[in-house]
Amino acid sequence: MSVNISDLAVGTEIGSRSIEVTRADLVKYAGASGDFNPIHWNDRFAREVELPGVIAHGMFTMGAAVQLVTDWIGDPAAVVSYGTRFTKPVPVADLDGGPGAVVEVAGVVGALDAEAGTARIDLTVTLDGQKVLVKAQATVRLA
Amino acid sequence: MTINPELQGRSYRLGEAYSVGRESIRDFARAVKATHAAHFDVAAAQALGHADLVAPPTYAIIVAQRADALLINDADSGIDFSRVVHAEQRFTHHRAIVAGDELVAELHVDGVRGMGGGAMITTRAEISTVDGDAVATTVSAILVRGEGQ
After folding, report:
1. Which residues of A fall within a CB distance of 8 Å from B96?
2. Domains in chain A, ordered, with CATH?
3. Which of A45, A77, A135, B141 ranks highest by number of CB atoms within 10 Å?
4. pTM for the whole thing?
5. Alpha-carbon distance A75 to A67, whole Å?
6. What is the CATH number of the domain that holds B133?
7. What are the distances in angstroms from CA B30 to CA A42, A80, B8?
8. What pLDDT is attached to residue B24?
């Protein structure tokens, strides 16, 4: 599967998805990434440093959000750059049998560079209707 | 403890190579809920022209945060890790990271800005192979929160 630049225009939607997040997901991310900051798994510790409770790693949210782009473009290596600002924490409640947070991701073509053969995908990433990532943009190399 | 303003311009070398293994790529991919076959199946990755399993777009953070730790753990930096919040992150890939890579990094402290009782610190990790080929440039801004921030 490949995406051709001539099929795209600024404003073209690439899709959307919901990411369900549990405490177990944060433990898994901590292990896979090596980021063991206790604010991501210890409620007591998180409150001691004046957070509302355990929050997701910003990098978990950033990493999960870009999968929409990877799946759309068809090759993870096509993502040549990716950046974001983290503006709001994603608190993850400790619930039995359900997600502690649900993050919504939607992507749209923000810019096209025919000469470079790249497209900038702008991601909207929200929790309960509020943006948690701001200026989340991925540049992809097109066929 | 306050942030040492003289951190700006410093650099640290992560000289011990990080060996990118297939299971590490698979674990990281699962952890960010990535399902693309190129992260899991060598034949699928090779069909796309890659030498081996391809890392997800944010995988370089593993190496970048190991490099950041050199600064954070520097007794002289004044940074309290428990008060660190990630403010901004950017990845520029010079080429894809694949299983079998041996990665090292040079960390540069590009900016230190006081904010209330805390500070915003911008670091840049130049990630390369042990042979010196550029792989990725990552830029992180971390906010070290002051008391009550």
Report:
1. 76-77
2. 5-141 (3.10.129.10)
3. A77
4. 0.95
5. 10
6. 3.10.129.10
7. 22, 21, 36
8. 98
Starting at the edge strand that comes first in sequence, how are the strands of the sheet with A130-141 ordered?
A13-21, A101-113, A118-127, A130-141, A79-86, B84-93, B134-144, B118-129, B102-115, B11-19
Least Cα separation, residue A134 to chain B (angstroms): 9
Residue B49 domain-assigned (yes or no) = no
- Is A99 in contact with A21 (CB distance < 8 Å)? yes
Tokens of A14: 């690439």
Residue in B32, B55, B82 nearest the CB of A64: B32
pLDDT tens track of chain B, all 149 residues? 578 878 999 999 998 999 999 999 999 999 999 999 999 999 999 999 999 999 999 999 999 999 999 999 998 888 888 788 899 999 999 999 999 999 999 999 999 998 888 899 999 999 999 999 999 999 999 999 887 76
pLDDT at position B84, please? 86
* Domain with B11 in it: 5-20+60-144
Tokens (6 digits) for A52: 């509302």
The interface pTM score, or ipTM, of the predicted complex is 0.96
What single-letter DSSP state applies at residue A7? G
Across A110-127, b (16+ Cβ under 10 Å) vs e yields bebeeeeebbbbbbebeb
Q: Which of chain B's residues have a Cβ under 8 Å away from the Cβ of A69?
A: 57
> What's residue A140's pLDDT?
97
Selection from A94, A34, A78 nearest residue A59 by Cα: A34
Q: Residue type at A85?
A: R
Q: Strand, coil or helix: what is A41?
A: coil
